[in-house]
Amino acid sequence: MIGMGRQTAAALVVLWLYTAAAAAAEGDYMKYKDPKQPLKVRVKDLMKRMTLEEKIGQMTQIEREVASPDIMKKYFIGSIVSGGGSVPAPRASPEEWINMVNGFQNGSLSTRLGIPMIYGIDAIHGHNNVYNATIFPHNVGLGVTRDPELVKKIGSATALEVRATGISYTFAPCIAVCRDPRWGRCFESYSEDHTIVQSLTEIIPGLQGDIPSDYPKKFPFVNPREKKVAACAKHFVGDGGTTNGINENNTVIDWNGMLSIHMPAYLDSISKGVSTVMISYSSWNGVKMHANYDLITGYLKNTLKFKGFVISDMRGIDRLSTPERANYTYCVQVGIHAGIDMVMVPDEYVEFIDDLTLLVKKKVIPMSRINDAVRRILRVKFIMGLFENPTADISLAHHLGSHEHRELAREAVRRSLVLLKNGKDGDAPLLPLETTSSGKVLVAGTHADDIGNQCGGWTIEWLGLSGNITVGTTILTAVKNTVDPATEVVHNENPDREFLKANNFSYAIVVVGELPYAETSGDSETLTIADPGYETISTVCEYVRCVVVIVSGRPVVIEPYVDKIDALVAAWLPGTEGQGVTDVLFGEYGFTGKLARTWFRTVDQLPMNVGDLHYDPLFAFGYGLTTSPRLLKASL
Q: What strand order describes the sheet that includes 418-422?
């Protein structure tokens, strides 16, 4: 009996140990790591495990330049940003990008909970920070096409090129409605007409993927299986309506005006599952948007039911005190209270983390606000599949600058051109130009052989750069590719009268425009082209039949020179595929573009938009001459 008792006791001990081990195993089961669990369950399970420090880390986005795997681990950083021109190395390859991103990601994955970070970049007209990427026309040109399907294809191509470098988040699209071309960001806007901007939010399913029919409405969506990226509708809200077009300034408009002009594209973006919304630097009727609780929390989150996360612009909360950052704790308090979920710090992240932590511990910022922010951030990360596939490989590298994508960009260039004039009074049209042997033709102007000028701002560098900055086809090269080999193409950037008299040119192509700029550096009260552009137009067009191609981010002053010009083309900022310009100049394709912006006579008229009571433009909204393709004309 004694032996049997010992055996029973031993069995009970074994049973107890087994039960305890099973219970421990059950306790170690992390639902948030199980992709079979519902999204809500995964988010809830992860959040209950997180400390305040880990939660605030998720709300912090830092610049690549100050990041390291150790910093990602130590501070539980939730996101990294590459600002304009912030790259791992000059002309970095996809492999260099991927190795850098994966290195940061491995730091995040080594934390206690292994929450992956999300890497964001401004891929706003293609993957424009990256050497050899396809650079598409800026939005000002795409608006001319009025073609949602084309823009959706561009979104898909951009997503692939972004993924090719290991990045999963782009700060695009800009859905501003630019109401004054003096604004330095007008080239980022599709149109002055909100209906065009609304229709072109179709880029969002291009970037993120098509929402399944049974998917929850107004819910963020990214299809990781199709190698898509998270998108960002920006800049909420009214950024395109500031007084005199001054960047980051004040938009003075009543609520009905805001709802009817600047807000509609956000409703479309949310219905298409946009993952994030970025807040504008600007103010609405004197209230900074980064501090606007009523619009961010009250309207965007509560009324529109947006379920993704809200991100600040770079150093956006810093501007909430005067001078900037004079009282940073106040800036953090007001911005987070307003409803911003992730702050693009980007450098002084320790100060941000310390200040927000102190504000929570002092109960100035309630824990419910922190939980709302983190819940939204994690929701997007889970939807993106980052927990299952946090790191990238080289398998998509061949998509960067691929022939297929460059052909798509070339099509977009063709479709974005607007023919404003074709022939002087009484003369035959100059366009389409002859491709057969024409003896000698002149190509002139500051923008004829300059890929940087052709691409504009937000290309390789934040402000853009003139010169041979990336791989592409300049308009001069495109002309040489197009004309008969027997035709002599002469390039002279700014020829004088003697040169023009001494040569018997059949015609001249004069390519002039604005030099690259971005944001405030592009604000302009004069809206003139770069010197010696007007002089080149006047001189060349006096002696040779000329087509003037304007490369610019907006309408510019041209009325005093129109009578001197035989043909006038608005090419906007076409990007790397200059062959698309000559495709139409030489008649392989016809001109189809219609202005999506009003072309003013003088800057004194501004702001002037279609529908205004006093509307007297040089070229009206919707204007654009058409031509037929040469082969079609020949067959008629």
A: 418-422, 567-572, 546-551, 508-513, 440-444, 488-491
